[in-house]
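Discussion board: Methods & Data

I've been asked by a reviewer to show the raw model output for two of the constructs in my manuscript, not just the figures. I'm not sure how much to include, so I'm pasting the format here to get opinions. Each protein appears as its amino acid sequence followed by a line of discrete structure tokens. Is this the kind of thing reviewers expect to see in a supplement, or should I convert it first? Here is construct A:
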Amino acid sequence: MTTTRMTNARLEILNTRDKYIKSVLADVNKELLKMRNNRLCYYQEILKQLILQAMYQVLEQEVSLILISDDEKYVTSMIPELRQIYLANTGINVKINIDKSIKLPTQEIGGVVVTGKSRRLIVENTLVVRLLNLTQQAIPIICTGLFGLNPTRTYLRDT
């Protein structure tokens, strides 16, 4: 009985921690959404960097960009600059197309999906995907910041 109570109490603590972390991440998601809705200048710079990063991963002469419909006008004006930067860094003269047949869902905060010419290679570089990746890497650090050191996780301690 005591063991069952201890186990249940520990599970309750873990569930509460998980809910709290999810609420912190939901707040981050809301802030990113505000940034997208305001279309501040730095969002355009972030979008440009996300596109370039995905293009470097595809590394082909012709790429297609799948975007949120609101981002199309910004990206259309960026294409000459993107081509120039890509050429300078890779030596490849790239043809950039904006795919008008497919759009990212409105739930996406921002970012891009870059595909190669034949769509065999797809790089999803959206802010939601980046946030999920960051979350997976940062959960132990977030937990330590919120709840203190966990004595069983010696690998997270500075030596």
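Construct B, same format:
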Amino acid sequence: MNTRRFTMMPGPRPLPILGNSWRFAVGQKPWETLNLDKTLWYLKNLAGSCGAAKVAKLFGHPDLVFPFCADETARIYRREDTMPHRAVAPCLKHYKQVLRKEFFGEEPGLIGVHGMPWSRFRSKVSKALAAPEAARAAVPTLHYVAEDFICRMENILDENRELPKDFLTELYKWALESVGAWALGTRLGCLQDNDTEAQNIIKSIHGFFHSVPKLELSAPLWRLYPTTAYKTYINSLDSFRSLCLKRLTDKGVCAHIAQSHGRKVATILALDLLLVGVDTTAAAAASTIYLLATNERVQKRLQIELDANLNTDKEMTCKDLDQLPYLRACIKEALRIKPVILGNGRCIQSDAIISGYEVPKGSHIVFPHYILSNDERYFPSPQEYVPERWIREDFDKINGYTEKYDIGMKRESLYNTGDMKQGSDHCRVKSIWQKQKEVGIHPFASLPFGFGRRMCIGKRFAEAELQLLLAKMFHKYSVRWRYGELTYSVTPTYIPNEPLQFTLIRRQ
């Protein structure tokens, strides 16, 4: 195979001295940090089919390489060593290794670190987090968090049964309460209005997530002087650390870590779980609710599954969740279309050939999962929300096109054959399903939780949180969206810009 020099890889041309950093500093399209999704599409067009593009000469950062090919992504992931290197979040690294070094010491945690320190810490906590039985054991606790949040949703509806404009903040509260329940073994009180400590936690969450893009995606002015965003960031991290020290109990996942490796390791783990397990899960919930609310066919099909398997009078268990394959497919499809993180990265530790180009050691490889999972090559009609892509059963069997459902009440088939529009929708969606079946699903085309040893260590817990909330929400309500299409920004989580004013209609 003929290889080409790295300098020949397409990408924006750097200026002398300024490199390419000036593009993000000026912030003109397509180089706005809040709209990195558009930046990725621009780079894909430069790369061409199955190619790669680069953004070189960035102040304080290694050269970035973007391979727009699932096969290439698979090759890179599979060749990495046992201690894969990710790009470090400079401000978080500064907090852990400089500003609060007296606390963290030789225990840097899982976030913002790599190499042997990361590997040692991961070996201490992975069994308690990654084992399937750990997340399954947390389901009863998470059930009550979801139950309380559903009650809160009912209480905050307006006279038109619309959720408030700040519903995304409410989802942050739910996600934070969930992490506290399974990780710290305690209820934090985030779903209550009169809990002062909980309100301070929410304030810190707001401050932290709003300061991250200013610190990690923009010019690092905080290295020169303590900017407002930097002060907010540090104060928020200090608040989280104090919370974890204060609220660590003898229950929850972190309690097991404390017993075997001490309270300090358990506290650091809890801090990292708060940093990565709140905004991501809230964003995933927001996008899934939106896509279900705007796709009546899918929502009805999901409710048929929920009606057939859930009992409103009893606590949900992991066995109940096992009976909801269509719900899991709805979440997978939502994370395909709107992944909470646009891409994952690796810093290669040796020279490599990527997409036919010689890429030097130290380059940062960015896997643009958002682009691949919305690429026609891998997902026919990628803009269409079709959960059936992820289910192996026959399409008509999944959707009950010719069947009636008997679950203690008379129910219409999902599709009324006398309704021409629904019949047309059925044919259109079935055609997409058939094309997907012919293409297959590339295992590296949609990786919302990453891959390998550095994939999301709390993946199973996040999935359980989402399944419980969505099951309860769509079992109790039909959800409507009465506004225009949502737009998204990178903060660095991929979140909606507009207020999430869903309408909730009680189901019989």
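Answer (T.O., handling editor elsewhere):
This is acceptable in a supplement if you add a one-line summary per construct. For B, something like: The beta strands are 52-55, 64-67, 344-347, 352-354, 357-359, 364-367, 477-480, 488-490, 494-496, 503-506.
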